[in-house]
Amino acid sequence: MWGSGILKGFAITMRNMFRGPITVMYPEQKLTLPERARWAVAPRYDAEGRPKCTACLICVNECPDHVLNLEVSKSEDGAKHIDRYVYEVGACMMCGLCVEACPFDAIEMSHEYELATRDHGDLVRVLLRDVDAASTRRAKGGDDA
Amino acid sequence: MSALGILGRFAAMLVLLLVNGVVLIYMLRKVLGRLHLRIGPNRVGPFGLLQTTNDVIKLLTKEDLRPDSADAWLFNIAPYLIFVPSFMAYIPLVFGPTLAVTNLDTGLLLAFALTSLVPLGVLMAGWSSNSKWSLIGGMRAAGLQIAYEVPLLLSALGPVMMAGSLDPARIVAAQSGVWLGFIPRWFVIPQILAFVVYAIASQAETQQTPFDMSEAESELITGFANEYGGMRFGFMYLAEFSNTFIVSAIGTMLFFGGWQLPWVATPAWLAPFVFIAKTYTGIFVMMWARGSLPRFRVDQMLSFCWKVLIPVSLAWVVVWACVQRLWPVVAMAVSR
Amino acid sequence: MTDDPKMAWAITAEGSQFPGPLPCGLRCIPRGVDELATEHLVLNMGPQHPSTHGVLHILVELDGEEVIAAEASLGYLHRGIEKLAESRRYHQVPTLLDRADYVSGLHTETAWALAVEQLAGIEVPGKASWLRALLMELNRYASHLVWLGTFGMDAGAMAPFLYIMRDREMLLDVIEAITGSRMMFNYVRPGGVVADLPAGVDAKIRAWLEVADTYLSENDALLGGNEIFRMRMKGTGVIDRATALAFGMTGGCLRATGVDYDLRRDVPYCAYPELDFEVPLGVRGDNMDRYDVRVGEMRQCIRLIRQLVDGMPEGEFSGKRSRVLKVPAGESYAAVESPRGELGIHLISDGGLTPYRMRLRSPAYFNLAVVDEALAGGLIADAIVTLGSLDIVLGEIDR
Ligand code: SF4
Ligand code: SF4
Q: What is the model's pLDDT at position C32?
């Protein structure tokens, strides 16, 4: 009969009303991200808390958006020293190619997703500052496998 | 009636309208939210209760913009032309056995006359904004709301005939008591057809989905109200909600016994609450429809009005007139 | 002046600026009206308009409510994806392609992977094909859901849109668990896929499959089952078979006209030859048919996903995926059936590290081209729903 579909529609909306809201009250409530969720790039550290990065620059070349930048200086003995590892989070598209490419597992896609900021300067991050690259330490102390 | 009395009544009407507006907007958001699996406003104040109040403050303090090319005079007065009739339409509402702004013998007529002024304001708003979207919205409103006036009025005729009066107070009074010992004497039972017509036509009168042609947001953005902002828009918005209240209140008076409880006598102090509760139930159903249905197309809606609603309601008026005239004769013949 | 009212109109129209057919619903011009000066209204619909689904700009010429002519003006979302691809290495291009059709990125990614594999002669392990098909079907369903919801919105029904978001949320959770992202997946690469199904995702998909049918029939009842909706959709926005073919329409829009053409079945790729599904067809090519075809496709989607989850083979999820892939000089074309139609990648390589030229055959672009034909003659409201029924995604159209 003409109109039965309309009445059925009324019943469905009412049924959904009783199902209750599905809203997640962010920021009080937060959903857990799946393991693979890709958000801001973050450096990884070894057991002693030293960055794993060897300053090989592969990630820098890999990033399609040229978001990563490593300022590396070399000491006299040829060891690499990371002056700054700059990451422009505002321009990053969280594609994960840098992490995939890093042969030393030195960076990861973290689960940090609350990236909004009031200060434009916060969109450029310095991931590592003034540390020896991992390979350098290995050369010096030989404590790294 | 003294001047003070008149002023007092006006003030009461205004307060009622504003409170209604605020409550209804909150209710609409909550009801639609729940129907749509959302929560609705819940941040400002407890349960988001202060959300609408804040919105009103926002509207009041916003800059009052008028497009350069708009027809200034018409543009400025159109919101009031929409608002004032819906404000005045509170006059004939009967909130209790002794509680009404005033008793008019032709109160119902006044209410319908006033609500039928609204399309004029809408058309003016649409025309004077000098925006193509507004113009289309205004024209639609003019075409549709005027068309739907007809079935709205015709559907009210049934209860009027049963009560034998155009005075809302007497229509309500005529619905006291029971039929056959247990059915409340609400006119909706014999007049179910008229009620359906009334429900549809009133949804169209208040421009709610599925009949919100004049502000169809997916087609015309907001139609006639496109260029309005600040409190001018606020007035239009308020008028829309107050119209919703009025058609629901009139429906309550015509078909659902107004302020009376079924079966038991209603104490005078309870009457307004019963009336408001019934009216809000009606409004809830209107919102429910709003949350559930897609929109008609403009030509379908017009032909639906002229080809279905008006013939049906006209036929019903004739049928009911015959029934009412013949009933005593038949009853007499049967009893003899 | 002749006595024939139609002719009378023609004569008055001849001198006027806008000769045209009779306004909607009129069979002859009422006496006196033909001397009235009437003007057509030219309306700029978009690029900011709630119903143009993005930044589409449509110029419509109106006679009252009736649309006389319509013209789409494109390019507001142009980002030069095809040109940018020329400076990206082969495995980097999917990040761009995700942004072409942002509602169903996995289809574009897969088309790219297929095109590169075809040219470079890469063999893909069986499981990768199945994973691709599974992800594409999940994505197709999510994309159709967005279409269904916005289509309902165009018709004025708000409820289905929000119900659909609940449904889609579950799907996106699944996709996020697999690919790591909800929208910009970057999952399918030349050579295979990036990762295997994670633990626990199987249960998630099955949980969704449990409710998918119920939710879909509820939403279908709210729209397709609603008489008001049917009244509006039947007979409006008719695109006949000849027009559809002439404009190169594909996908649901083409199948709604009765042309039985589905790449998944006719030019099989990935795991589709091993799967069992039907291709819903329409007859008249009006909005109702497009609606029915897509909803039918969604039902088939559920069926396909069930098969894909049940039959997922064991094995490697990817062959060798190289970061410095060298593709021999030559050309290739690979197409997939995206939710919108035939999504093709035409790839030309000169043997270098980056493509020489990449062209995206975006189905929505061809489907949109028909607006001029499809909108004229309807009312504004019809124009809106017809546009909605074409299921356009501006990211893919403007690229
Ligand atoms: S995630 Fe992608 S865009 Fe971001 S830094 Fe890594 S490679 Fe660059
Ligand atoms: S993060 Fe990884 S790829 Fe980048 S420089 Fe460090 S070690 Fe190399």
A: 57
Q: Is the pLDDT of residue A50 over 50?
A: yes
Structure tokens at A19: 């199902």
Q: Give the three-state DSSP class for C362.
A: coil
Q: State the nearest Cα–Cα gap between A100 and chain C, in angstroms.
A: 9
Best of A45, A54, A60, A92 for a ligand 2 pocket test (most atoms within 8 Å of beta carbon): A54
Q: Which of C170, C112, C106, C166 is CA-nearest to residue C140? A: C106
Identity of the amino acid at C112: W
How many CA atoms does the CB half-sphere of C298 hold within 13 Å? 25
- DSSP symbol at B304: I
Contact residues for A101 (Cβ-Cβ < 8 A; gap 6+): A58, A59, A62, C323
Q: Which residue has the tokens 């897609």?
A: B294
Return all residues near B78 (Cβ < 8 A) that are at least 6 apart.
B121, B122, B124, B125, B128
**Listed residue (B328, B275, B316) closest to B191, CA to CA:** B316
Subunits with 3+ Cβ pairs within 8 Å of C are: A, B
**How far, rounded to the nearest angstrom, does the alpha carbon of residue A66 sit from its chain's CA centroid?**
15
* DSSP string for C135-196: HHHHHHHHHHHHHHHHHHHHTT--HHHHHHHHHHHHHHHHHHHHHS-SS----EETTEES-P
DSSP state of C22: P
Label residue C28 by pLDDT band (50, 70, 90).
low
ipTM score assigned to the predicted complex? 0.81
Q: What is the mean pLDDT of chain B?
A: 82
Alpha-carbon radius of gyration of chain A:
24
Query: DSSP for A44-77?
Result: -B-TTS-B------HHHHH-TT--EEEEEEE-TT
- Residue C286: C-alpha distances to residues A126, B181, C144, C245, C378 (Å): 57, 56, 18, 15, 12
In the numeric block, which tokens belong to residue C82? 């095809």
Query: What would the two tokens of residue C303 be?
Result: 């069926």
Do the Cβ atoms of A12 and B292 come within 8 Å?
A: yes
pLDDT at C34: 58
Q: Write the residue with the smallest CA distance to atom 8 of ligand 2.
A: A56
Which tokens sit at C192? 């295979």
Provide the 3-class DSSP secondary structure of residue A42.
Answer: strand
Does residue C15 register a pLDDT over 50? no
Torsion over CA of C28, C34, C36 and C39, rounded to 10 degrees? 70
DSSP secondary structure letter of residue C219: H
Alpha-carbon distances of C103 from A65, A91, B156, C392, C393, rounded to whole Å: 22, 21, 51, 10, 7
Amino acid at C223: L
pTM tops 0.90: no
CA distances C157 to B144, B203, C183, Å, are: 20, 15, 26
Q: What residues 51-80 of chain A have any CB closer than 8 A to a CB of chain C?
A: 62, 64
Tally of residues, chain A = 145
Q: Above 50 in pLDDT, residue A145?
A: no
Domains of chain C: 1-37 (no CATH), 78-369+381-398 (1.10.645.10)
Tell me whether A15 touches chain B (CB under 8 Å): no
Residue A144's pLDDT band, with cuts at 50, 70 and 90, is very low
Q: What is the DSSP letter of C248?
A: T
CA pair distance A96, C373, nearest whole angstrom: 44
The 10s digit of each residue's pLDDT in C207-228 is 888 888 888 888 888 888 888 8
Which amino acid is present at C256? A
